Amino acid sequence: MAITREHDLHKRRSGRNIGLAVVLVAFIALVFGLTIAKVSGGGTVQAFDHSYRPSLDPDHVRFQQR
Amino acid sequence: MTDIRVDIPQAETGDAGFGDYVALLKPRVMSLVVFTALVGLLVAPGVMHPVEALAAIIFIALGAGASGALNMWWDADIDSVMKRTAKRPIPAGKVAPGEAMALGVALSGISVVMLWLATNALAGFLLAFTIFFYAVIYSMWLKRATPQNIVIGGAAGAFPPMIGWVAVTGSISLEACLMFMLIFMWTPPHFWALALFMKSDYHKANVPMLTVTHGRKATRAHILVYTIALVPFALAAGFTSIGGPVYLGLALVLNLIFLQGAWAIWRRDEGQAEADNYATEKRVFKFSLAYLFALFGAFLAEAALSRWPAYADFAAHIRILEVF
Questions:
Q1: Residue B194's domain spans which residues?
Q2: Residue contact B14–A37, C-beta within 8 A
Q3: Do B182 and B293 fall into the same domain?
Q4: Is the pTM of this model over 0.90?
Q5: What is the pLDDT, as a whole number, of residue B14?
Q6: Of A15, B55, B242, B258, which has the most beta carbons under 10 Å away?
Q7: pLDDT (tens digit, 9 = 90+) per residue, B262-317?
């Protein structure tokens, strides 16, 4: 018996590996899409630079926009 | 507790195919969850980025699947003696019980955290509570302890539209509560109708289904009482921001048919039911599925029609509970 003989178990394992790969790629794509959606939909994104700027205060920004 | 946790075929870890793991997530239940959660999400006031909405639906469905896997892990003993469930992956010996438990726990964590990150903390909390409610309160406790298992356990199936709504709005409102109550009150007559014509299964598994503990006459009465109790919630939703003339008209007709079916079940005795092979019970069970899909479909129709200003103005006269 050749060592490369295909058994039903190998087919199941192969199907499982492919299925898992598809799920992982889909998950990565979804997280990437979510990141883009959150960043692009979140308005101005800026970090705190150890000193207060009025533009960091959402209430101030809303007041300025009126 | 039942003492039938004995001869479940033990699968070798690594034997299962991908489809066996998918079957653990109860895809048919997931489809109902996806539909109701999607309706809750689409009819909620507010705007959501399409990718966020897609992520929300996927993770709500994944959470439902996770609770399904935990349910199959815990109930493997009773699944193996019931004809309807004997071919599930664990009793069929395709997936090891420990694997199902690990999959359920892992997917629960992933779905809750991801829903939280994709939408908001309240939606994530509600999903976590739903999984806990279905896996622990229903599967581990109530299912084997009380004939009211279906009534209280039905809450788990009622949460998805509320989670969809909360994912958009960040808060729970009257509309979300009415969608919850619609499914919550619908579940008992739906499942008891099933239990009436699947009687031998639940009896064999020693599950304290109402038909086993209180008899079939009492179950028929319960179906009628819960159907009557369902009607006010179904109609009340028509007077909120998610309702309107189309929904209300449809709800009136469908509730009358449901009531007529429940009345017919109540009037029958076992002799009549066995004579026609439970035709009325089967008809009401099938109708109840269509009932829920149609009413949630009507919520969607109202949301779509309300984009038309003339219809929205007309519907505003009916949506008298919108102010709350």
A1: 173-324
A2: no
A3: yes
A4: no
A5: 57
A6: B242
A7: 999 999 988 888 888 889 999 999 999 999 999 999 999 999 999 999 999 998 98
Q: Domain count of chain B?
A: 2
Domain co-membership, B5 together with B148: yes
Q: Can you say whether residue B110 is alpha, beta or left, with left for phi > 0 and alpha for psi between -120 and 50 degrees?
A: alpha
Q: What is the DSSP string of B272-301?
A: HHHHTTTHHHHHHHHHHHHHHHHHHHHHHH
* B11 conformational bin, left if phi > 0, alpha if psi -120 to 50, beta if neither: beta
Nearest to B51 among A13, A15, A37 (CB): A37
Among candidates B25, B5, B27, B24, which has minimal Cα distance to B95? B24
Give the CATH number for residue B134: 1.10.357.140
Kindly report, residue by residue over B92-121, the tens digit of the pLDDT: 989 999 999 999 999 999 999 999 999 999
Chain A closest-CA separation from residue B18 CA (Å): 4
Angle ∠(B41,B56,B186) on CA atoms, nearest 5:
50
Residue whose pair of structure tokens reads 């009628």 in the numeric block? B224
Q: Which of B141, B172, B203 lies at the terminal end of a domain, its last residue?
A: B172
> Is the pLDDT reported for residue B2 higher than 60?
no
Domain boundary pick from B172, B204, B231: B172
